[in-house]
């Protein structure tokens, strides 16, 4: 091709590029059968385009079947495909060494195939899937709609009951502040997984009933009620969860007494989940006899239809988790419950300068003192000012560290007081019933304290009598020693009046 013809072709590529918007180099490569960048990259990829397409279809088929392929399995599958290139059988040659794909190969794989998307999915039982429970939810609303349309059922007589379990001392994942050189990706926590269950009930107009707490124990302990909780009830079970006896007790002694007078003879609607203990024969008999309409949620739908999980228990667990975090930050390992006490001391900033002590003992005092000193340092040279500024920054840091230590000491002081209170009451058994109210626990504790006090008084009287008897025998022995020391045995003797008079 002559140079003139080449110049003409370049000119035509340039003009076509201007008119079409396609780069002139691309037009030239296409005209001269040069491979495109994408085709060139395909020849350099770990898998061929066809192999990648097969892998894409395999992943889509798994997703359609409900078992999506984890991203971490892409590299092993790609390695299997490459190994199978040199073998017609399922078992490949173990001596065959094949380079595995790089660690970033999965990201490039689903970037090249836009029909795929990497997502993080939460595992859920198939019975709880939206498509599986759609008919159940529609049937539930049809039934509950007829009940709520009854004019005799008022909103204040519609109740929702649910239970939740709290694992004591178990920390959740959260964002924390660490050193930039800290490479740890986890934090230590206690492995004591003690489950405590709380049963709560709330009406449609926002009125809530007293709580029932279930502890994992066989007998009731006095340390459960170190803080006054009037009206509450405490139960114990081996697992820390509810059972038929506890459900019946809650219906008879918690729900019915607190809602009967308010209902005024009208029917009461109680909504609960489909747990088996809520539908025992004894519970249903009691509900029928007292005009309590027991409506249970359909199976595997509580995560959609149970409002207590989101509206009540979620904030409760969040608040409890914050208390556990604060306690664990100060070194506590076994956590049960602890009241949070906050105090605020008002400060009159107008009178602070007049009462300012010579050595500042608070950050506010230091700031005020620094302002006064700053007015007097105008005549100092730059070196003195720089040294004074360094001293000021060091003092501010010390005050900040002191504030953190004071807060930590305050939390430790409260924990020690809580521990002392529990240890003083002791882990004494005060009852063997499955469920006891707070008032019953207080009465049982008083009776036990009276019995212990009476026993101690009897022991004290017996001890005094023994001491008195020992003191008399000691005096007699000393008198005999004195008579023997003076060699007066032939003339004197110790006379026991009580023994001689008896004789």
Describe the protein's architecture and organization.
Helix 1 crosses helix 2 and helix 8 packs parallel to helix 9. The relative contact order is 0.07. It contains 15 helices and nine strands. A hairpin with an 8-residue loop joins strand 2 and strand 3. 51% of the residues lie in helices and 10% in strands. The strands form two sheets. A seven-stranded mixed sheet has the order 7-6-1-2-3-5-9. A two-stranded antiparallel ribbon has the order 4-8. It folds into four domains: 110 residues, no CATH class; 177 residues, Ribonuclease H-like superfamily/Ribonuclease H (Nucleotidyltransferase, domain 5, 2-Layer Sandwich), CATH 3.30.420; 63 residues; 50 residues. It is α/β, with parallel strands linked by helices.
In short:
The protein has helices at residues 3-20, 24-31, 37-44, 49-64, 74-83, 105-112, 130-148, 244-263, 281-289, 302-305, 307-329, 363-376, 382-425, 438-485, 497-502, and strands at 158-168, 194-203, 212-216, 220-221, 233-237, 268-272, 292-296, 429-431, 435-437. With 503 residues, the chain is of the alpha/beta class. It folds into four domains: 3-112, no CATH class; 136-172 and 190-329, Nucleotidyltransferase, domain 5 (2-Layer Sandwich); 363-425; 436-485.
Q: Which features characterize this protein?
A:
503 residues; alpha/beta; Nucleotidyltransferase, domain 5; 4 domains; seven-stranded mixed β-sheet
């Amino acid at each position: 091709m002559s140079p003139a013809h080449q110049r003409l072709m370049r000119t035509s590529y340039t003009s076509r590029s201007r008119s079409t918007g396609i780069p002139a180099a691309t037009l030239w490569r296409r005209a001269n059968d040069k491979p495109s960048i994408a085709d060139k990259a395909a020849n350099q990829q770990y898998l061929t385009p066809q192999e990648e397409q097969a892998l894409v279809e395999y992943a889509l088929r798994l997703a359609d079947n409900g078992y999506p392929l984890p991203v971490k399995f892409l590299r092993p599958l790609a390695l299997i495909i490459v190994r199978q290139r040199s073998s017609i059988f399922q078992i490949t040659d173990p001596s065959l060494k094949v380079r595995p794909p790089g660690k970033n190969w999965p990201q490039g794989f689903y970037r090249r195939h836009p029909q795929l998307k990497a997502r993080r999915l939460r595992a859920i039982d198939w019975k709880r899937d939206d498509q599986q429970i759609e008919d159940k939810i529609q049937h539930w609303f049809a039934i509950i709609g007829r009940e709520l349309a009854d004019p005799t059922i008022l909103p204040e007589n519609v109740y929702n009951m649910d239970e939740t379990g709290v694992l004591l001392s178990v920390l959740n994942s959260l964002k924390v502040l660490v050193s930039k050189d800290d490479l740890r990706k986890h934090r230590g926590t206690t492995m004591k997984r003690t489950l405590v269950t709380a049963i709560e009930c709330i009406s449609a107009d926002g009125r809530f009933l007293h709580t029932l707490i279930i502890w994992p124990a066989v007998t009731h302990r006095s340390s459960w009620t170190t803080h006054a909780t009037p009206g509450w009830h405490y139960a114990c079970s081996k697992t820390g969860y509810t059972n038929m006896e506890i459900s019946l007790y809650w219906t008879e002694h918690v729900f019915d007494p607190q809602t009967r007078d308010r209902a005024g003879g009208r029917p009461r609607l109680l909504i609960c989940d489909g747990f088996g203990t809520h539908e025992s024969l004894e519970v249903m008999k009691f509900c029928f006899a007292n005009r309590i309409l027991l409506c249970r949620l359909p199976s595997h739908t509580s995560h959609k239809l149970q409002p207590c999980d989101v509206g009540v228990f979620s904030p409760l667990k969040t608040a409890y988790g914050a208390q556990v975090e604060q306690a664990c930050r100060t070194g506590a390992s076994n956590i049960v419950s602890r009241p949070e006490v906050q105090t605020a001391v008002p400060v009159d900033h107008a009178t602070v300068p007049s009462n300012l002590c010579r050595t500042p003992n608070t950050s506010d005092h230091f700031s005020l003192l620094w302002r006064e000193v700053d007015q007097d340092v105008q005549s100092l040279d730059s070196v003195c000012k720089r040294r004074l500024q360094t001293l000021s920054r060091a003092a501010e840091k010390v005050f900040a560290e002191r504030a953190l230590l004071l807060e930590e000491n305050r939390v430790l002081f409260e924990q020690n007081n809580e521990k002392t209170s529990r240890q003083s009451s002791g882990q004494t058994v005060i009852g063997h019933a499955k469920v006891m109210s707070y008032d019953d626990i207080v009465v049982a504790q008083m009776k036990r304290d009276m019995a212990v006090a009476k026993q101690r008084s009897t022991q004290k009287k017996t001890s005094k009598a023994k001491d008195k008897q020992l003191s008399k025998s000691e005096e007699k022995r000393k008198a005999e020693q004195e008579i023997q020391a003076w060699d007066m045995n032939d003339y004197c003797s110790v006379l026991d009046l009580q023994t001689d008079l008896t004789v």
